[in-house]
Amino acid sequence: MGKSYEQTILSIFSGCDIRNFIVNFNAVRIFVCGGEVDIKSTTCKSFRHKIFEYTAAKVDFKIIHDSLIMAEAFKNYYRNNYSDLLTFEADIANLSTLILIFLEAPGSLVEFGLYCAKPEFFNKLIIVVPQQHVEQQDSFIYLGPLEFIKSKVDDSVLVYPFQDKSCLYKDDYAEDVCQTILNKIHSGNKTGKFEANNSGHLALLIFELIRLCFPIQQFEIEKVLKSLGLDEVKQGTLKRLIYLLKEMDYIDSCGISSNTYFYPKLKVKENKAISFSKSNGGLDSTSIKIKVLESINLGGDLLAHRRKMAVEQISKIFEDVNNGY
């Protein structure tokens, strides 16, 4: 009799040492804060809106447009195990490639205030500032945080003469912002050593487990993490990082009976986020997926039957996406 699904996934990662894990930063995610974005409007409501429209119209900037994660996507963050804004913002920053802040709305000033006190995120910051803020050189914003950030990372502060929503947001300004974004994406680190205390690395490990072992439930992810020595990852932490992965377009979920199963979004299904290592060599993604699928097909109990139904449902979802539905 073959191994159960749970036995299979635990045996796959047995012998792995997280100290040898490598994180692959191949999926670009850009967290964007700023003024109003109204996709139904025929005119741009803000500079942030202009960037959204401009990248949608330019093939060269498709990688940017497809990676934009608007702050509004997280309006219900407090319902998903986040008791404070600081932890939430740190998790987003750790998982994001870049943080793009347009200083044109009260909400973006809050984001700016949170990140300007975090030097570890300065290399990820791009702050777009109205010229009038800079001209008022006695202002707190100019003399304080902006100058400090600019002194550490020169291309993190971009200044343009845009004033308010009634002005025209020039293509030249948008082009310059986009080129700066591309430069930062291309010059950023492509890999890094796994750090268990970095919530972004932990989120990518969770994504990799989902990518290789889907359809998988939350408690099964938790068991694999514990088997890797990550006992400090409590249920609440796992729940909030799964929430971030869903909102940042890495994963989704489907329900079968009373069970919820997680799976990778089709566009990142082949994006290897973590390179594992074992005492007998590395882990091959294809062989892992084959072992997982075999364990699902051989299972005969109620949970195995539900997982098979989840596989069918997810396959249909992937097919619909490929067909443009």
Descriptive overview:
It comes from Shewanella zhuhaiensis. This is Retron St85 family effector protein. With 325 residues, the chain is an alpha/beta fold. The chain folds into two domains: 5-24 and 192-322, Winged helix-like DNA-binding domain superfamily/Winged helix DNA-binding domain (Arc Repressor Mutant, subunit A, Orthogonal Bundle), CATH 1.10.10; 30-189, Rossmann fold, CATH 3.40.50. It has 13 helices and ten strands. The protein has a five-stranded parallel β-sheet, with helices on both faces. The chain has a three-stranded antiparallel β-sheet with strand order 7-1-10. Helix 5 (106-115) links the parallel strand 4 (98-102) and strand 5. Helix 2 (47-57) packs across helix 8 (171-187) and helix 9 packs across helix 11. The radius of gyration is 22 Å and the shape is elongated. The chain starts with a helix and ends with a helix.
Question: How does the major sheet shape up?
Answer: 5 strands, parallel
**Annotated CATH topology of the largest domain:** Rossmann fold
Q: Cα distance, first to last residue?
A: 40 Å
Poorly predicted runs are none
Count the helices. How many?
Answer: 13
The first-level CATH class of the largest domain is given as: Alpha Beta
Write down the overall geometry.
Answer: elongated
Determine Rg (CA atoms, Å): 22 Å
What class, by secondary structure content?
Answer: alpha/beta
DSSP strand content: 5-15%
- In helices, the fraction of residues equals 40-55%
Q: What does the average pLDDT come to?
A: 89
Number of domains: 2
Q: Could you give the order of the helices and strands?
A: HEEHHEHEHEHHEHEHHHEEEHH
Which assembly state applies to the chains in this document? single chain
The total beta strand count reads: 10
Please list the strands of the largest sheet in the order they lie side by side.
Answer: 3-2-4-5-6
CATH architecture of the largest domain: 3-Layer(aba) Sandwich
InterPro entries: STM3845-like
Organism: Shewanella zhuhaiensis
Protein name: Retron St85 family effector protein
